[in-house]
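Students often ask why we bother predicting the structure of a whole assembly rather than each chain alone. The short answer is interfaces. A chain on its own may look different once its partners are present, and contacts between molecules only exist in the joint model. In this exercise we take two input lines together and write out one structure for the complete complex. Read the inputs first and try to guess which parts will touch.
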Amino acid sequence: MSRPVRLAMFGLAGGVTAVLLVLAAFALPGFGGSRHPYRDAAVPAAVRHATPNVISSINFDLRGLDTLGEETILLASVVGVVVLLRPAADERVREPRIGGRLLDGTRLFGYLFLPITTTIGLLTVAHGALTPGGGFQGGVVIGTGLHLLYVAGSYRALKRVRHLEVFEYGEALGAGAFACFGVATGLVSGAFLANVLPLGSFGDLFSSGSVLLLNCSVGIEVASGVMVLLAQFLAQDIEVEQAEGAKR
Amino acid sequence: MTVVIAVMFTLVAAGAVVVVMTDDPARQAVTLSVFGVLLALLFLSVSAPDVALSQIGVGTAIVPLMVMLTVRKTRRRR
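Now the answer. The structure tokens for the assembled complex follow.
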């Protein structure tokens, strides 16, 4: 396709999209306002299921199926990265190069924040039904927080502590548990991912029925997924190199 | 509150322009990370703390880190 044809096609598609976007924006309800039909339906439903964090109630209870879809997307992307970034035939894995200087301040900062960050991540997952955050947010905090070990210590320190198989199983386990729980509730109650567990009392840590459980399974999956994902990128950067004499 | 939201919208728009105008991908990872924080503050100002937390984790930490590592790797190969 020649350059003018491509430009014309882009101009046409871009123009149509822009016009539609502007028309749609004018048809939106005004910013803010007091009429919120979805809120009026979702908040009482969340309160009935003893879930103070309405967002978590929507994500894991009212629309749990959507979250299962999102979780599967994450699983598929991590698997895709693992496949694409594995050492190719013309690459070889070598000993990680150790070098560079580390400021004492960086080391102190890293080791100080490593336990704080992972604790905050665990708390975010556990309190997903009560306060902002949940399995996804907490999982990301745990997964990135553990990499402070690389920032403060070294790649070897990270590799010694990070057993990648554990996180690979964790990823599969978290995603699988979510789906299996959905099938099980479907068999018991006739509705996929229905909140069939005891709800407990509003505001307690062990309340909200299945929201707590699904938050934990997503937390395990996301934390493991981030570990596996970053491990591929770090390995490519630090350990994998072009084999000598290999054709580019 | 409307003033805070208006200020955050302006900052996010300005930040987005800075990210687009940054030429070098390695520098772009840093500006993208700052833009991620601005976006998280915008979400916070419109009462969406859950989304703000996800944005900080993904947009400020993971994505810029992956960009940085990729840039380092591709530069060495060249």
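Check your guess against this: Chain A touches chain B at residues 53, 55-56, 124, 132-134, 136-137, 140-141, 144, 226, 229-230, 233-234, 236-237, 241-242 (CB under 8 Å).
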